[in-house]
Amino acid sequence: MMSRKAAFAVAAVISAVAATSVLAQDPIAEREKLMKEWGQATRPVGAMLKGSQPFDLTAVQAALDIYAKHAATMPALFPAGSDGGKTEALPAVWTQNAEFNALFVKFGADATAARAAITDEASFKANFPDVVRTCGTCHQTFRAKS
Predict the structure, then answer these.
(1) Rounded to an integer, what distance in angstroms lies between the CA atom of residue 101 and that of residue 89?
(2) Which superkingdom does the taxonomy of this entry point to (predicted)?
(3) What pLDDT is recorded for position 84?
């Protein structure tokens, strides 16, 4: 497990790199687009976790790939000043930015680790909840309840 100090350092590096590579004209619209992609990838996988849809390793791997990819991009989509307008992001995103960015690092790392560990339904049920838990942690602290 990555130390908190190391996670913050990695988050800072990812933010700096992503900020130079992401040229979003509208960071709110771009982050909402990526969050919707996460949601679309999560719905069938969540149904598999609940047992209401058959296990599909390809769909699970695709979801985890999307999580990891967007986790690396997301921090740059919350620049200072992007807290206005229609957004569910709470002020804590900017006042606790290092913690916020570290959660994206953890989410990406969790998704990558789960991608390697999940080979069947049993390993899916054992590993996927940890990925979802990290996602939920961010929502609890940094997203307005709708």
Answers:
(1) 13
(2) Bacteria
(3) 84
